[in-house]
Fold:
Amino acid sequence: MRKRLLFFLSLLIVALALAGCNPSEPPPSPEAAPKIFKWISSGEDNSINPHDCNAAPNYEIVDFIQVALYQIVPAESRDKSYYVPALAEDYPVAEDDYVWTIKVNPEAKWANGEPIDANTFIYSWKMGLDPDLAWNSTSSIANQYILVKNGLEYYQQKGTDKDGNPNPAVDWEDVGLKALDDYTLEITTAQKYTEQEVIRHFAVRSTSPVYEPIYEECMNADRTGNSYGTSLEKFMGCGPFNLTNWVKASERTFEKNENFINAHLIKLDGIEGRVVLDEATRLELFESGDSDYVALGANGLAKYAEDPSLISYDQKAIRTIEVNRNNPDKAFLQDPLVRKAIFHAIDRNTIADLTFTTAAPFFLSYSGVSFADGTLYRQMEEANEWLPANGGYDPDLAKELFDEALEKYNLDKMSLSLHYSEGMDALRTASEYIQNQLPQIFGEDKFELKLQAIQHTAALALMRTSNEGPTTEWDMCWSGWHLGAETYEPHKKFAPYRSYATNKYSPYSNDFLDDNYEKLLTEEYRFDERKTFDATVEIEKSIILDDITCIPVIQEKAFVLWSERIVLPVDEYTVGLGFGWRFMDMEE
Structure:
């Protein structure tokens, strides 16, 4: 018996030896599962070109796959954020009051491993500001947190000034963006700026680089159009993730970009994303574990309003109704009288209750910081004391103004259309309420409002048709313009509402805004917080009380749930960073 036992033991030892195992060591642990964030979005995307990224569904993708010279990251304290070099090697160096140099990191690479250098940026910025390409969202390369010398003049040279005169021609060589050598950028500004302003400027997504070989392939024959970023084959990224699969308005799959300069900050291995327009379906996918994140609408809030894990925060976007002043068949839309009548006929408080948003009889949001100590613009008494009572809702005044407009234009009835974005439940609900409410105030026999659902990107294109001349394609359309710069400089939101702005939604004509905005960009105001604040209040008052440049209705308020396995890098939504999605981690 003992001999037989020894025999079997010897066979076991031989087998273990042949298998390369040590009987005294535990078996190897299985590899950890990849950290894949499951993301269901409601945004219908159509472009990943950082030069053509003027809608949230597009830039929510671009921010995962692009990076600029600097980027904002979460602090270890989990309560704030700060800027660090990304494609830059270090922070900007002031050569004098108007000249800065920035070194490009020699380790900076495209996703395919090819180097990024100073010439990459100069090409990218020149294409972004090219007056023939006329991108809508790239004036920020020249004028976001800093004003680059001759940058706007180069970008706008094919347009006209506020008096309708042709802008003078400007050569690229006169623009304050230069490459001194392969890795040194020189930026010449039109005014004095702080280091922090320069850093913020070159963290803006439009200043991130484009890949020249593909960009040139995508250029049309007369170099007035470019299809870069309209498909995966027409794009190259340099950000935290690579987009490996993309079906527009349907699917998007990302994997970690190991060539990303700050790859050590990225914890996720990838992202699996889908676009689902229906809110109820998005909630079902979250509850079944097929999504790690969901933004709640009315249906979801009815169920999760008391859930302790529910996070809410004010968003930048003020949802406004744009009015087509270039409709030749409805000249009365040019008249502030009509816009004021509609403004005062809208019950914002009720709409806010119905849509879980904030009533907004104002133009500037609750998320803009006006003072260095962190004080928000809307926290100041002076920013609110002039606002119309009851959220601007005054049906008697609205009826009086409307009847005056009918008489002025010899009309028996006004019939208008209102376009709203598909997939945005709050806008559909608000539109339906307004459609029912206004005829009750103005008179069923005197006013009619027709609703039209439209894709968000199509709505932007529709509105801008009126900038090119008369059009009867639309009367009113929802918009929600907000700029990154307004986070720290709320007045920057005024820029696209100038009558001579090249990236405006529709033709505006607020003379007070036109005449007073530019002074906010001067050193006299920029280095005097109080003076800037006071001037900002006066312009906002003009927009709301005098011209009704657009009709503000609600400020978006987000309500979100995250799955228990997601570890966010901040404890709450943070100014400038948000939730820091790119830096999230995931528990096993």
